[in-house]
Amino acid sequence: MVIVLLGPPGAGKGTQGERLAARLDVPKIATGDVLRAAVRDGTPLGLEAKAAMDRGDLVPDAVIMGIMGEALASPDAAKGAILDGVVRTTPQAEGLNAQLAQLGRKVDAVIMFDIAEDELVRRLSGRTTCDICQRPFFGREPGEKCAVDGHAPEGTLIRRKDDEPDAVRKRLTVYREQTSPVINWYDTHGARLVHIDAIGTLEEVEARVMKALQH
Ligand SMILES: [Zn+2]
Q1: Domain extents in the chain
Q2: What is the distance in A from the centroid of ligand 1 to the CA of 1?
């Protein structure tokens, strides 16, 4: 089962994606993670991505989609995958479909995490991020050590500038402009799209995700 998670940063799709992946026994694939792995492993596409980053350029969509295609084709993902943050724009949705079609597969479900702007601002203003592994934390203060994944040197938690209320509202506007067409695109391309109310405890939201997937 290939499931695409949509939702603004802070909506909880990373955490829910990890839980869903564990339940379904499939990998959670996030763009940043597969990109870093490809660069670290020095694959041909990883080297292309690194060259772009070294020049200070954005990694081209085609390179990212190629790396994504390799991750989807790996034996790990034979039973499916949870795609977190992979699709943010319509060209990315099209690119993903093309990659999956080459593998004889398709997107089985799209889960959209709905959250009100005020709640998102409240959540993100309390978020800190590891300055090395980029993992987000809620309820921990800037200056604390990351201490999660054993990376060395150890990361320090910082409050990102773009997590401040005005910046969050701006990001959210950009996000909505990019993502509304993606939702319409999936609506007209036969993928099952479900909306999840993303406000609630981890367990409440997880129960909604599982219920939505059973229909
Ligand atoms: Zn870290």
Answers
A1: 2-115+173-214
A2: 30
Compute the chain's Rg from CA coordinates.
17
**What is the 153 CA–ligand 1 centroid distance (Å)?**
9
Catalytic residue, chosen from 28, 123, 127, 208, is 127
CATH number of 2-115+173-214: 3.40.50.300
Please, what is the Cα angle at 111 between 115 and 86, to 5 degrees?
95
Q: The tokens 């997590």 sit on which residue?
A: 163
- Distance, CA of 167 to CA of 64 (rounded, Å): 26
* Nearest of 121, 134, 136, 128 to residue 160 by alpha carbon: 128
pTM over 0.85: no
Encode pLDDT of 83-131 as tens digits.
998 898 898 999 999 999 999 999 999 999 999 989 989 888 889 998 8
Q: What is the DSSP string of 87-147?
A: --SHHHHHHHHHHHHHTT----EEEEEE--HHHHHHHHHTEEEETTT--EEES--TTSB--
